[in-house]
Each structure stands twice: as C-alpha cells, then as structure tokens.
Amino acid sequence: MAVSNLNLSPTILSSSSCRCCYCHFNQKSDCSLLCLGFVKRTIPFSRVLRKPDFESNNKLIFNATTDTRILHNAAATTKATSTAAVEIPVTCYQLVGVPDKAEKDEIVRSVMQLKNAEVEEGYTMDAVISRQDLLMDVRDKLLFEPEYAGNVRDKIPPKSSLRIPWAWLPGALCLLQEVGEEKLVLDIGRAALQHPDAKPYVHDVLLSMALAECAIAKIGFERNKVSLGFEALARAQCLLRSKISLGKMALLSQIEESLEELAPACTLELLGMPHSPENAERRRGAIAALRELLRQGLDLETSCRVQDWPCFLSQALNRLMATEIVDLLPWDDLILVRKNKKSLESQNQRVVIDFNCFYMVLLAHVALGFSSKQSELV
C-alpha cells in the first residue's frame, strides 16, 4: 500500500516572491497590500507588519493513504468499500475539547454541547454534516474503544492520531477551531492544502484556518499586543481572499475594516520595538506602513483612519532615527507640504504635518547634514 507523507513544517518562499503568509495559495492576489488592509492601494507593502512563519513541528506527520476501511457511525452502512482516508495527528479528546483524563460523563456532555452548538457562518453543508458524523464517531471511540481512550490507571496513553475519510477533514478542522486548537488547525490545514485529495474541501479548510487566525488575533488584542493581533488578522484576510467563494463573506469585510482602523496603532507599536536584528524586518515594514499612511493623509483620502495627525505623527517621528526621518520626508516633499499648508487651512481641511512635526523633521535634516557632512541637507 502506497503511503505519501507530508511534513507539517512551514512552506519557505523564495526571496523573490511575496513573503506574506499564505499568499502562495493564490499567487495572483496582491497579498502585500492585503496584509495592511489597504486593499485598493498601489504602493507595495510586502512583509509589512508580518509575523514570522509558524514554527515547524517535526513530530506532526500528515499521512494520506488509500484504505479499505470506512470510518462510520451507527447510521452508516456496514459494507466495506474502498475510500480515501487521511490520518491527522490529534487525539479524540482534542477533537471534543476535553483533557485526556476526562470521565465518560464529561465526554458525553462536551459532545452534546458541540453537537447543539451553532456552526460558524460560511461552512458548506457537507462540512456541517461531516462535523456531526465525526462527533458521533469520536464519542463512540472514547466510550467503547480503549485504543482511542487510553487508560489512566494502567498508564496507557490514548492513540495520538486518528484516521478519517477526507470528506471528514473539514468537520475535524471545524471542531478543532471551536475547541481552541488554533495551531493544530493551521498546521493540518496547511499540510492538507498541498495534497490533491483536499481539492474538493479547500473552501472549508481555508475558512477554518481563517477563523483560527481570528481567534489568535483576539488573544493578541486581549493581551494588549496590537501588532500580533493585527498580523493574525492580516493572515486571515489573505486566506479568505485566496478563494473566490470566501471573498463575499461578511467576515472578510469586517477584517478589512478592522485592519484599516488598527494600522496606525500597530505601526506605532512596531516602531517602538527595540532596535535589534530580529526586529529589523518588522521595523522596515512599519516604516513602509507609516509612509503609506502619510501619503494617504497628504492626499486627503477618506480611507485613512488617523484621527489626530499631529499627535500620531509626532509619536511616530519620536520613534525614528534621523536617517529614517530624512528618508521618509526629504526636503522637496517637506517644502511642498508647507507650501500647501495655508490652502488646506483655508479650506478647513486637516493638516497632517503641523509646525511641531515640521520642526522635528527640520532638526533631523540639519543633524544628519552636519554629522555626515552633507551640506545639501543643512
């Protein structure tokens, strides 16, 4: 019997391609823009506000086999026929969200709660049905099959993997996402998408992964880590935009609106990180984001979500070095901005660079000019 193994370590993209997480699902999509929520912009934002790829877990192996055994519940046919099956690295306990030492009544209670719970909007009916079938199958395994339940008294661990039909994979990822196993959802989903047998289920797999990223984002926001939450939302956005059938979901619109609102705060948070090699790429991305926000503000675009420009820009400039400020606002651009300042004020429109910010930029030019002996900067 032929067995093909897919390692769940992250996909490494070449340096010439967009390194935004998951953009390899759809090379035609401009994920460099999507990652910041600036959907209609033309300035590239590659690697902006991006979280490093997921850590690989060499212990997790994704096996796809052709098996003659059909996993079924009590209502399914008992006739053995050939079907494609997949082995996922999870225990039955993980699928229903209970610890390995859970008693039978706790298992039944958790299964019933999941069975009666409302499934997230966007899943196909096949995924919803497979979720219910898998729940019943897992319940029976935990209650009646010692191999899957293990034995605490005899110190026998539960079986660490589960073989299911490919058609049940969307249901498995849906359940894992519901019970808080976000990393497993992302690892299994990413590996599954590399296998041809997953093609009929891509919609549901991507949706589960996007919802897992949203859950990670929520955790980041609750811990007051705006950038981590922002990056998770950006990855969720890329996942949803990689499939046409997911592009019309209300969830995607909500994510895009949140990204636009959070971009200024995320930019400031990343600029405030220590100047260390591990933060260098994020800092470059944050400066690119600041440049785009500044362009939007100066162009009076309504999509720009910065409410108090003098406050925001002064905080950003205080986090930049002189060379970075000069690169962000060269003399020619600065002169043009100040020339337009009076006309903007006469029209009661917002002023992006007020006198205090102008003075900070001026000092940066003078300081860099003297230190580097570049008279044109002074």
UniProtKB/TrEMBL annotation:
Cellular component terms per the entry's GO annotation: chloroplast inner membrane
Q: Which GO terms describe its biological process?
A: chloroplast fission
Residues in Plastid division protein CDP1-like 1st alpha solenoid domain copies:
163-310
Matching entries from PANTHER family are given as: PLASTID DIVISION PROTEIN CDP1, CHLOROPLASTIC, PLASTID DIVISION PROTEIN CDP1, CHLOROPLASTIC-RELATED
User: What is the name of the protein in this document?
Assistant: Plastid division protein CDP1-like 1st alpha solenoid domain-containing protein
